Fold this sequence. Notes:
Elements: E1 2-9, E2 12-20, H1 25-35, H2 51-82, E3 86-92, E4 104-113, E5 128-133, H3 136-149, E6 152-155, E7 164-171, E8 176-183, H4 190-194, E9 204-208, H5 218-222, H6 227-230, E10 236-248, H7 254-261, H8 269-303, H9 310-320, H10 327-353, H11 360-377, H12 385-395, H13 399-422, E11 425-430, H14 431-438
Parallel strand pairs: 5-11
Antiparallel strand pairs: 1-2, 2-4, 3-4, 6-10, 7-8, 7-10, 9-10
Amino acid sequence: MDIKRVAISAVNEVIVITVPQMDYKGQVAKRINEKMPLATVKGFRKGAVPKALVEKQYGAAIKVEEVNKVVDLALQRFLQTERLNLLGSPLPKVNENFSWDDEELVFEFEIGLAPEFEINLEAKNDIVKYQIVADDAMLDTQIGRIQKQYGKIISQTVVAEGNDVSGMFANEEAGINNRATIDLADFADAKVAKSFIGKKVGDVITLKTKGLFHDDHKLMDYLAVDHDNVHGLDVDVTFTIDEVVAHEPAELNQELFNKLFGDGSVSSLEELKAKIKADAEKHFAQQAEQKLMADVQDFLIENTKFELPDEFLIKWIQSSGEKKLSPEEAATEYSRSEKGLRFQLIEGKALAQSNIQITFDDLKSFTTQNIRQQMAQFGNMNPTAEEVEGIVARVLSNQEEVKRLSEQVVADKMLQLFKEKANPKTKEVTYDQFVAAMYNE
């Protein structure tokens, strides 16, 4: 048998396997001999069928089976020996001139190879590591929301200043049909808020979306509109009132503090603000990390150039799933996944260059931290080690969870590596400034 690699490009090759008769002839003969006692052909007793007839009836199928076994085994061993870093898996090439009657059978398999490239984590960059602070304005707004949430709700028949109004936003042409509750203070124009005063349940008000709120992103919540469509959205929407309520704010006293945080942990407005600030900034830190990771991905993909076997991968996507895709569908799927594939290769290269490996201890430690955080969110601030270890063991017995958590550990290692090597600059911002930066505004 002869096996060779034929290069198409640096990342695309064909493996050519030439199989002579001697590699399968003996096994085919053995299979036919084994078949003879069991063969049934009309006009002959079972086991008394002439060998020529057995060969004629079963020989071709047996030959195909045995040759395919030989080829599959040879291909597997060759790939292992050559230590090829494949993208996808080998695809058999169709040869219109192929004949099972040839003395030498030639099989071709197309493969895609991972590219060779270098990565420079210390390259100059303008990536920002945001540190989000909860400013006084945010704290005052949050405290106002708490007082409103824990205060008394009084149903109203007519809209008055300070009321909340619930109803349906609608514009059939723009595909808007969403129920929302509005604080009249959210409107950017006081005239719009004033237009609600005196209205009743069932009344319909027409509003222009352009400039309706101080922040266009609120249209995403109130109208259920995608981010890409909120900026510059200029249509008329109707708002049909179905509920009006007034709020009597809760007093900022020990009873309220205990409801929020438990007995004695907060006992003054200053301590309340400090607690809200700490919790908010802890949450903001997670959001800032997510943005940093996304910015790191974009930077590395943009600044690390290498070739991919695009045509091969599109063909592989066509046939690798449960449902066979058309070339157009496969091309669309590839365009969606290409960025992720590129970063996966970059990530692996960066970790290898820095001799960073993911161990079971890393996975267990990461899972333990996640479990403790989740338990804290549900009020269990001090779980026992036995409780946590039991949950961690159950989680790590699930292969899907292990895969998901391993990906998170790798991403975390990659982010820490980039922070160390690339040293992104830190910038302190308010949450509103962070949101603007997140959407490149």
